[in-house]
Amino acid sequence: MHFSVIPLSSLIFCYAFAQGIIKTATYPLSTGIPNAPSTDDSGNTENQVKVHVVRVGANKATTFEPNKITAQVGEMVQFQFADGNHTVAQSTFDQPCVPISMVDPKISGFYSGYMPTSAASDMLPTYTIMISNMKPVWIYCSQGRHCEKGMQMVINENSKANATRTLENFSALAAKAVTVQMKEDENPTGKTPPSPSDAAPKSSEAPSKTSDKGSDSGSSSRSGSSSSNSTDSNDSKKPVSGSGKNTANIIVSALVGLLVFAIVI
């Protein structure tokens, strides 16, 4: 029996390379936003995005839970609409129940639109924004008198910079305010929203909805997601289906056959 060492070595090398193809095709990295993320600080690894979850109208209450969070630049805040018909609208501290775009036309802000849902529903509507800076973001629900009744929250409160600008004082101002309501997907200024500034979030929606261009904390989107609660911050290594693994298997099978043939010869 005679066979060449060089062809045999080449076949072994190709076999090992093909095995590498399988691993790469089976476990890709993902930086997508998870459907049911967690606020847990543990378990975050490279290429994962931390997502803070805020429940809107949970237990039929006119509240955001939690109503005060701290989120770093690049992190997400996902609003999960648990029950009722609520909105997520950006305002200013001085005018708690008025869209920020009516106070400062240069900032279009973000607005989820009305999100009707039932507590018994298997799917929870969601609205997600990405934080682009550490400036305080003041938020209210524009439904009825929900804002006056306490449905407000803040992201990145900074009482060290200004001791009077706290959530408690924001809520006190809201209790005396008059809520400015908006129609579905309405731009309250009646003007074309300007390009996002570095002081506010950019806003966009899923293709099934009309796009919102926002401006005070990051990009935003809304969708439906499963109502199940998860403790994982991201599914960054979920196996994917595709032709990569099948192709690699074919290559391996062919190389094994050639290897056996070379040995026999």
From TrEMBL:
Q: Does the entry feature the keyword Signal, yes or no?
A: yes
UniProt KW Signal keyword? yes
Q: Which terms are listed as keywords in the entry?
A: Signal
Where is the segment annotated Disordered? 182-246
Q: Where is the composition biased (Low complexity)?
A: 197-209, 216-233
CDD domains (alphabetical): Cupredoxin
What does UniProt give as the signal peptide span? 1-18
Give the protein's recorded name: Putative GPI-anchored cupredoxin
Q: What is the lineage of its organism?
A: Eukaryota, Fungi, Dikarya, Ascomycota, Pezizomycotina
